Amino acid sequence: MTIIKETQTNKPAIGRSQIALLEKLSNASGVSGDEGEVRAIILEEIKSHVDETKIDALGNLLVLRKARMDNPLRVMLAAHMDEVGLMIVAGDDGGIFEFERVGSVDIRQLVGKQVLVGKNHIPGVIGARPIHLLEEEDMKKTIPIDNLRIDLGLNSSDKAKPGDRVVFGTRFSQVGPSLFGKALDNRMGVTTLIELVKHAPANIEMLAVFTVQEEIGGRGARVSAYGYNPDLAIVLDTTPANDLPTWDDTENAHYNTVLGKGPAIYIADKGTIYDRRLINFFAEIGISNKIPYQIRQPGGGGTDAGQIHRQRSGIPSVAISVPHRNTHSAISIARLADWKNTLGLVYNGLLKLEPALLKHTDSQY
Amino acid sequence: MIELSPYLKKLISLPGLSGFEAPVHDLIRETWFPIVDELVTSPLGSLHGLKRGTGSEPRPRLLLAAHMDAIGLMVTTIANGFLRITEVGGVDPRILPGQPVIVHGKKDLPGVIIQPPSTLLPPGHGEKPVEMRYLFVDTGLTEKEVGEFVHPGDQVSFAQVPVDLSGDCMAGHTMDDRVAVAALTLCLQDLQHVQHAWDVWGVATVQEEETFGGAWTSAFSIQPQIAVAIDVTFAKGPGLSNHRGYPLGKGLTLDMGPNIHPALFKRFKEVAEKLDIPFHVEPNPTHTGTDTFAMQVTAEGIPSMVIGIPLRYMHTPVETVCLKDISRTGHLLTEFIATLEPDFISKITWDD
Description:
Number of helices of chain A: 7
Helix content of chain A: 10-25%
Radius of gyration of chain A: 21 Å
Number of strands of chain A: 17
Shape of chain A: globular
Strand order of the largest sheet of chain B: 1-2-12-3-13-16-14-15
Order of helices and strands of chain A: HHEEEEEEEEEEEHEHEEHEHEEH
Distance between the termini of chain A: 51 Å
Structural class of chain B: alpha+beta
CATH topology of the largest domain in chain B: Aminopeptidase
CATH class of the largest domain in chain B: Alpha Beta
CATH topology of the largest domain in chain A: Aminopeptidase
Number of domains of chain B: 2
Shape of chain B: globular
CATH superfamily of the largest domain in chain B: Zn peptidases
Number of strands of chain B: 17
Oligomer: heterodimer
Radius of gyration of chain B: 21 Å
Largest sheet of chain B: 8 strands, mixed
Distance between the termini of chain B: 46 Å
Helix content of chain B: 25-40%
Number of domains of chain A: 2
Largest sheet of chain A: 11 strands, mixed
Strand content of chain A: 15-25%
Strand content of chain B: 25-35%
């Protein structure tokens, strides 16, 4: 009997080289509105795999992979490139700089951190008054941002200027079953989408968009969805896992998602009621392919779908996210298995997508 | 030949929480071995290195103390694979969310400090700082693995990698007080080529951040005629602009006040002035919060002095120092030792 080797070349997967790419992307600086460094890494990765690319007026990277079949669904896949961060707004002559936040950064996550400033990644720190000089009451108050500074060391007035973007100085690492790094939101989604672009299925017209400015309101997604005018959109993002014990060890009813339980499918958040047909479709894909998935608890938050689904005449949208703890902080934690299962769920779904899915019938409601 | 910058990075990257100083002790022992005449580890774990003087016996003894212990955290309980923590030394809980740490369990495990969202905290908590007892260390491992490797009482060290900043500065955790260990090491190295009458005992003390346990006991066993603590002091910078801070990179500080013998202050000042080593006078109205607090009142009392190395953001993982201030401190110690005449102590008087 002949042993037929299964060819892996056309199937996306997450292995050593994809983790190395995530590391590179996680360590890169790409605060909302200044995504160039991330965009350049993506372009380099995908350039030999694409039919068309375009960078639009806001800096979105639009990538087309044509279908190899007639009458394909035009599927937009969106992953935001930007991360939350800081911007230098003023300096003094000692190399100590004032800053503001870009996106929803919890001030309490800033104290005692290393940061990287500007395109040259100049290292700095955000310090605090020594505990020796504090009263007990002081430690019960959050240090206001007006009292925090970025310190680049001595004689460094010329090393940064107002307008420079700032990211956490974290370096990515793989720890047991987990991944530690900054900006896993959303460089995991970006890496997933790069892998999908490289292995685009023949049955769909793939309209991949690496979006800008998600963290400040999905502004990149809005214009790219207008431009591509797809039949449906799949948003690839990350979502918080608040799967911790509660303060009094009662049941945690606000976990949002749980690490290790697979990709999280959004039902509803502050900006979107996700398309029921697409939610059910991906849930079925999970069941039939034995890929674990979980439903993200409905609630606040949002994704690029918030802008996409209300574009033009309406674009049915779904969001599939990798859970991660400690979001929007110096170090987030995600599980490699969840990321692999996210790619698996989305890819298997893409293979099965058909125009009939979007036909309205009463039985679906 | 010890290069300051790489050596300091090595020093601060080794664990050594108060009471658990062995890892950093071993590195210092290895460094000092070729440059001292005798090495002893005290019953509590302080490292004593003797550099013999050339004076006739019995020679007077000088003790130079730099504490090697670090502040950090300790595991109190484990809940569903997450570690609850308490402090070792003084830690402001507001610096903790998002910090990388190493959990010293059955093996060293990297972890991250997680701040729970307000939905998991007492009702009405809002966006206030989260108390230490509500924070967690997440090792990224499964509950089963955590149960196997971690137990209450395990130490947790800060793990930020040190970073070079502009102007010869460096930021990292545990600069307090490994910068003083580095300055003391530079001094012991320089003493190879310097004639000195006194015996010099370099001591890397334990447990300064909790009980001064090392300072009490090392001063007792060495019984020096003079004891000098080298420790960090507050540098001016964000969060500290008033008289309590000294400029970074503009020299060391010479303490004065009740912990300091005025004759020692005077001699150090004279030496610094003569050699143009920049310094500021640091008045300390009560006690200095250094090993001198203990050493001064050991046995029948010891004339004591404190040298300060300015540092920004003390007791945070981004403690920032200027390397020049460290080498200046080492240099001043060496030059002070060289000036010590055999009968110096008999000339110390209280001129009222």
